[in-house]
Amino acid sequence: MRRKVGLVGLGAMGRGMAGSLRRAGFDVHVFDVRPQAVAGFVADGGVACASPAELAAACEVVVSVVVNAAQTESVLFGDGGCAAAMRAGSVFVMCSTVDPHWSVALEARLAERGLLYLDAPISGGAAKAASGQMTMMTAGTPAAYAACGDTLSAMAANVYRLGDQAGAGSKVKVINQLLAGVHIAAAAEAMALGLREGVDPAALYEVITHSAGNSWMFENRMAHVLAGDYTPLSAVDIFVKDLGLVLDMARASKFPLPLSSTAHQMFMQASTAGFAREDDSAVIKIFPGIELPKEAS
Q1: Entry pTM
Q2: Which residues are catalytic?
Q3: Domain 171-286 class in CATH
Q4: Which residues of the chain form CATH 1.10.1040.10?
């Protein structure tokens, strides 16, 4: 009998993760608030569930791939939530970017119910999630790892074990998001300056991506700008949230983060200017006096 794994949240990352689990031979049960997302995965061999509770009742491992802590709370403790339906000894794998202190507290709350918890934020983007090549930054008890190690291996090429209790995974993810957000903001600033100075944007992209100034974020996100395509794989408001978490973590220990603060303000400006739900590369739209490439028709 194939092992049953549940996954909540079939967004850009979750859909690929569910596919990786199915290819690895798991019986994958899914829930998403968007019926069309569920129908698309069921057509590929998944099992639809009407609620997180229905999913949890059928599965020993529940993987949550929602946006933030508030949505995770709803998945667990809202109407039709997982927590009341999960059997003792089952494990909840939390893949969102959240406040590390909240993750620590969640581990304790679930332990009171006899449930295991893995603090397991993810990185790598939709393509790596779809190919099972993403990175997971995990922390949890040995029992939690024992309950879901095969699940993690099916979804990720790199599963980092960072501690034996929750919190360490989320701390490392927050630091990763510091770099990601700053790199996107810097990439946008560089491309905007090139446009302002009349440099051919395609030529600038070609040179930078083969020079010391390149970064993964420049190469990936400025390709969106060149295409004039701001379809949100990761939206501007994701970095409003994530850089906010970065600053909150540093503020608690009175640690200065001047670059993170500036990048956060840039994403805030883009959000309030009407680009909140566009791809995070749309942060380039805050710069005045430049003409951005148009999407090909």
Answers
A1: 0.94
A2: 173
A3: mainly alpha
A4: 171-286
